[in-house]
Amino acid sequence: SLRRLITVYCHNAQTTNPSYVLEYRTLLELTDITARHFRILLGAETLPTILLRSIDRQQLNGNDQQSQEQFYDLPNQAYSVYTGKILIDMHAGCVSIEAMYTHPTTGEQKKIVYQHNLLPTETSLQGLLERLTVYGKSRNVQLLQLIDLNLLTAESAYDEKQKFETLKERLDECAAYRRSMTVYDLDSLIGINRSEGNASTGRTTNLSLINHNMYTHVKDKFQHTYVQTVSGSVKKFETLKERLDECAAYRRSMTVYDLDSLIGINRSEGSASTGRTTNLSLINHNMYTHVKDKFQHTYVQTVSGSVNDKNVNSDEKWSVMVISEPFLLRQFYDDVKFTRSDHEIELEKNENRRATERVKCVQCTDYYIEKDNHMGICVHHDGFIYDNHSTNMKIYTPREAIAQLLKEDAQPIQQHTRYVQTPEDKERLERMKQRFKFICCNQTLVTGGMMGGCKRGTHSEPHVTFVEWEMACKNNKDYREKRLSLLQSRTDFD
Length: 494
What we know:
single chain, alpha+beta, seven-stranded mixed sheet, three-stranded antiparallel sheet, 17 helices
């Protein structure tokens, strides 16, 4: 159908312009017409539409290299084998590609992630399609399948049974190819139920998954994603077996092994008390054992020709998970045990610390957990304390005022041996205890029980010290003006 459309278009164009040459843009436009006619869509668009948008952007940017948007493909990484799992966090604007890393010296294996930042234009699934097609092209995938709400709508899959049938049909199609890439729009497939309410600590938000069965199915498929890599040693064995079988078909044959190039020697040098030392070891032990066995137990059978050491990818089943909702992202991360980067691990540790570690608030002197630090939970005074009996209304911090009261309270006990207090002395001392007032609300400072306060807000930040908070209260411009006003009124009264 596409060939016929192109032929008719070129024939009509050449009737008016014999030297007409089909342009690439026109070819994409004709391909787009055919793709839409046969409903060959990638999400809500066709692949030619994505390519046309890329051409338009490049023409708009021109030759300005800094303004041209670039992103990485998926080349083979040194000492790493991809697991086939890609997680795209739309909220953080980051792509995480999981791989299994093998240490070149120790042979120790661990999972790592290669991370790339999304472009400013990649704010939705449709904006990711160009990146995903580049990923698929770089891995030479035979099928790129996008599973999202558009697919379910196009297939009229509205109830759960129809959704699973459509999902199974597309996943079976992917399984039929040796190299495939399946892209899931998890937000639209699963859905998040969000409810908000009011509580004593402020607004609360409850989140839950809507389609649990679909989530479980997609999660299982993502976990079983794999990239089966045929390493150079396996390829060598295949080549070796092929040539040895060929030799075995003849009655007389001669096989020549270049053992140095087949096995390889690992050479390392170091220093010791006796001088320089050199350590030698075999690189390809399996190949060495196999060749040795053939040499000992068979007639001479040979591999002629060189062996290709380059890694050859056989089966690659890629899965790309696109997630926007942070709650769904955390849930999926935990369920599939997706490898986190060092930065994400550090953020998780900080989050756990905020949820468990007790912090002392310098405002109300109580303990709190950062995760539960809501508006209205901290009751405190935000002003300094002044001595109401002094002529200049001397300023104190709460700690200084409490220390002064405790000192004065202990003096009558120390002086009890010298004389007995009269009722007037006791009354005077009680009045003296009431002289410290908070400038913010004129509340009297007491040394026992809960201090309370006149302001409600959030607890202080963990890094704020008592000295910093007290200085902030002392330097409060409004309260200093209030104190000066009180001093002026007393002067006028006198």
